[in-house]
Write a structure and sequence with these properties.
The structure is a homodimer of 205-residue chains.
Chain A (H helix, E strand, L loop, with lengths): L5 H10 L7 H13 L2 H17 L1 E2 L6 E2 L13 E8 L2 H10 L4 E5 L18 H8 L5 E4 L5 H14 L5 E4 L15 H9 L4 H4 L3
Parallel strand pairs in A: 3-4, 3-5, 5-6
Antiparallel strand pairs in A: 1-2
Chain lengths: 205, 205
């Protein structure tokens, strides 16, 4: 792609560094900015820089926060003996949206993935193990995605904490609410049979 | 969508102002930036701001340029009697990529579209008519998209310049090279029959 302006080329190249944004999309976005008032680009650029430079991570759960201890961790109404282990802050947002969880979270920041060069020490695992060692946690819920990497990460953490007195669970795998049985994959359908729940408890939600 | 940080929320909101970027995509992009070094976000923010504040438009053809007269307009090897009228700088880039056009361009900056509140005076039409009045242009090629708005814009410009001595043409509509006839729409196929070209001239490209 040949550009008639170096400034345009640089902006397009930088935008196309973002995941899922190719050169053509980047050009479309940048040309859109050119049609908008200058202030709008300034506001966007400042919002991105402020976010990148000033954002903090909660010192307890590693969720993104504007203060040292995030709103969830500092909320006295939440059950601090119940901790849900997630991969990403997006998972925290997704679970919070359901309003069905009243415990705390622990954000790992990824999954163990040797193929991508991500080992246990690149994730927030030590602080989780330390929390378990302190003995405050009664139950740890693993809510990682059920991929090879997710299962590996679950198992690694499980091995680290198995000598301590803590109950571990994983979120239920099964047929999505509203889905047709015949279209479900065999593993999911199999698990949903093996891990069936009493009918009365399914009436609660 | 509830955010655990105001800085994050603001960055996501600003990113999602861009066309085709929803809140979820914006969040994915912003979280990606958080995983990259801070410098990368600074470079992106600066590239966008420099582009928005310092970019110039060629005073002759209205193409984006770093100088007052763009490289194409200032190139003595190009035929200034032949002008191709396009909607957008992306069209200039697309035609330049073919290396088959040696004339100059005129970028309108859009199409006449009453539905979107875009009238002739929002586009670079007056400067085009003035160029024609000066008598330097021998042929004007309309290369707008063949939509209602494109046809309206072509016709509006044609009406403005019909009293001056200039030959007007439009780019050929027809079956794309490599396409199967049976899948072409009737209008395109019809036009390709009516506007057939001598066989020998089709051998040139």
């Amino acid at each position: 792609m040949e550009f008639s302006s170096k400034l345009l080329e640089r902006a397009v190249n930088e935008m196309s560094q973002l995941p899922g944004i190719g050169k053509r999309t980047a050009l479309r976005l940048v040309l859109h900015m050119l049609k908008q008032p200058k202030e709008q680009t300034t506001v966007l650029a400042e919002a991105l820089q402020n976010m990148r430079n000033d954002i903090k991570f909660c010192k307890s759960c590693h969720n993104i926060s504007d203060v040292h201890l995030c709103e969830i961790c500092s909320n006295p109404n939440r059950d601090e003996t119940l901790v849900c282990v997630v991969e990403d802050i997006r998972d925290v947002m997704a679970i919070e949206n359901t309003s069905s969880f009243k415990g705390l979270y622990h954000v790992l920041g990824g999954k163990i993935s040797p193929m991508d060069g991500i080992g246990p020490h690149d994730l927030n695992i030590i602080s989780l193990v330390n929390k378990v060692k302190e003995g405050k946690i009664k139950e740890l819920i693993f809510a990682l995605s059920s991929t090879m990497e997710g299962d590996t990460t679950n198992f690694y953490i499980f091995k680290q904490i198995q000598d301590y007195k803590v109950f571990t669970s994983t979120i239920a795998r099964g047929i999505s609410v509203g889905d047709e049985l015949e279209y479900a994959d065999e593993i999911t359908l199999g698990r949903s049979i093996v891990n069936r729940v009493p009918f009365e408890s399914s009436l609660k939600l």
